Automatic annotation (TrEMBL):
It comes from the Bacteria. InterPro entries: aa-tRNA-synth_II, aa-tRNA-synth_II/BPL/LPL. It comes from Streptomyces chumphonensis. Residues 50-285 form the Aminoacyl-transfer RNA synthetases class-II family profile domain. The lineage of its organism: Bacteria, Bacillati, Actinomycetota, Actinomycetes, Kitasatosporales. Transmembrane segments: none annotated. This is Aminoacyl-transfer RNA synthetases class-II family profile domain-containing protein.
Amino acid sequence: MSTPSTTDAPVPGLRSPGAGLVTLDPVHTALLRGLDDLLTGLATRLAAPEVLGPPLLPAEGLTRLDYFRNFPHLGVSAGRFHPEALDGLAAGEPPTDLPLRPSGHLLPSATCYGLLLSLEGADVGADGTRLSASGRCFRNETHYDGLRRLWGFHMREVLYLGTREGAAQHLEQGAEFIADLADRLGLALTRAPADDPFYDRGGSRARLMALDPVKHEFSAPDGTAIASVNRHRNFFGERLDISAGPTGPAHSACVAFGVERWVHAMTLAHGTPEQALHRLRDALP
């Protein structure tokens, strides 16, 4: 497992056992849980059933999805202690000095990858399918910054697979939900295109993306992106042989929320975590 190279900025009220890692105090925890409850409203609106994705992703599968071509710096590998290290561990030697062997798996950096890989070879039909999931995600960033940029964080996503038209509608409804929820919570968000690819940066698809962006981010006034709408075209459908009935390879799209970043945005907007929690409770049904 890779080690962060820099320390993160301190956040009042939070405890950090290491760079990019935080323990949320009771107020921040209540904010995170309450916000996640509100974010599930999109899944309810779109009739997307809740599922639980895998805690590890096979490196082989991610390779087929061009993950390492696009994000070589983000991957956090899962390793096992080499059998030769077990005696040292039992004798109390520091584990950092003992050899690891690759497991062939990575910790998820986004919730949707595990869901997509699990649908390989499936036919979602012309009507398509939707899934909602939340999980811990991990990214080996160059730096960390409080709740704005963490090594491990919670990501909630609502995923669609089906037709081109269905994917476009999914993202339109997701963007409307984000705007409505931000208004209820007193958040001023701006929307702008982002440049995260879902395929090889050097290929014709990457050139097409420069003309027709596939990802838009919604950011707080300090520039923190707290949500995104992502159109994958039929990339995952082709790579994973996921079809949408007679229409051919499925198009896919997802709406993603970084939950700790929503906590940060609420505190930024309302002054203190306590005031943010009060505003959140006013917005709950």
